[in-house]
Amino acid sequence: MFEIFKSYQLNQEKAHDYGFVENSGVWTYSCQILQGDFVMTVSITADNVSFQIFDLETGDLYPQVHMESMRGSFVGNVREACLEILYQIRKACFEVQDFICPQTKRIMVQVQEKYGNQLEYLWEKSPDTAVLRHEGNQKWYAVLMKISWDKLEKGREGQMEAVNLKHDQVADLLSKKGIYPAFHMNKRYWISVTFDDTLSDSAVLELIEKSWNLTSKK
C-alpha cells in the first residue's frame, strides 16, 4: 500500500495546509473513515509513511488492516477506504522527486498544471513506471517509464525516461526521431516518446494533448 509514495516527497507547507501537525519531525493527520466507524491516523517522517486504524466507539486499535493473512469483505473495505485517503494525501501534500532527464521534469510540471493529474505509481514490481489518467473515466493517457535505452534501441546503453502515448497515426510518426513503437503496450495504437530533448517540449506536449483527447471518451 505504501509503494504509492515511492518517488514522491512531502511538501511540508502543503501538508500543514491540509491539516497535518508536526511534532519532533513527525507529521500527523487524523480523519474518520467508513461513515465514522473508524479513525485513521497517518504519520509521516523523512523516510516513512505509516498509519493506524482505531475503532471510534471503543478506541481500540484495529491491526487487522495490516495483516496480509486477514481476508474478507469487511477488512477489504477498510483497506480500500485507507488507500483512498492515502491517495488524497499524496495528491494534496506530496510532489514527485527529481527525474533523470531535465525534459521530464519540465513536461510533468506543465502537464500537471494543465490537466490537474499527478503521476500514480501503481505497481510494486514496476516502481519506476507511473501513469497519468483521467479523473472521470480513469483511462490512462500517459505512461511514464524509467527504462534502459536498449528497450527502444538495441545495443544502446544507459538509462532514460520515456512516455507511452496514444495516437491515431502511429505509422506516420515512427519515422520521426525521438518516437518509437510503444514499449510494453499495443504498438498499433501507442507510441513511446523519449524525454532526451530530441523532440521539443511543445512537440511532446502536443502529443500528450492528442493522447488525452483520444482517451477522454467514456
Q: What would your notes on this structure say?
A:
Pfam families: YjbR (PF04237). The chain is an alpha+beta fold and 218 residues long. Helix content is 28%, strand content 29%. The protein has helices spanning 12-18, 73-93, 102-115, 170-173, 201-214, and strands at 8-10, 21-23, 26-33, 38-45, 48-55, 94-96, 129-133, 140-148, 159-166, 179-181, 190-194. Strands 7-8-9-11-10 form a five-stranded antiparallel beta sheet, covered by helices on one side. Strand 3 (26-33) and strand 4 form a beta hairpin. Helix 3 (102-115) crosses helix 5 (201-214). The mean pLDDT is 91.
CATH first level of the largest domain: Alpha Beta
CATH fold descriptor of the largest domain: Aspartate Aminotransferase, domain 1
What is the string of helix and strand elements?
A: EHEEEEHEHEEEHEEH
Unreliable spans: none
Number of strands: 11
Could you say how many structural domains there are in total?
A: 2
Major sheet: order of its strands? 7-8-9-11-10
Q: Structural class of the secondary elements?
A: alpha+beta
Secondary-structure arrangement, i.e. CATH architecture of the largest domain = Alpha-Beta Complex
Radius of gyration, Cα only, in angstroms? 20 Å
- The mean pLDDT is 91
Q: What is the terminal separation in angstroms? A: 28 Å
Structural features:
5-stranded antiparallel β-sheet, 218 residues, single chain, Aspartate Aminotransferase, domain 1, alpha+beta, 4-stranded antiparallel β-sheet
Task: Produce a short descriptive summary.
With 218 residues, this protein is α+β, with helices and mostly antiparallel strands. Helices cover 28% and strands 29% of the residues. It comes from Streptococcus mitis.
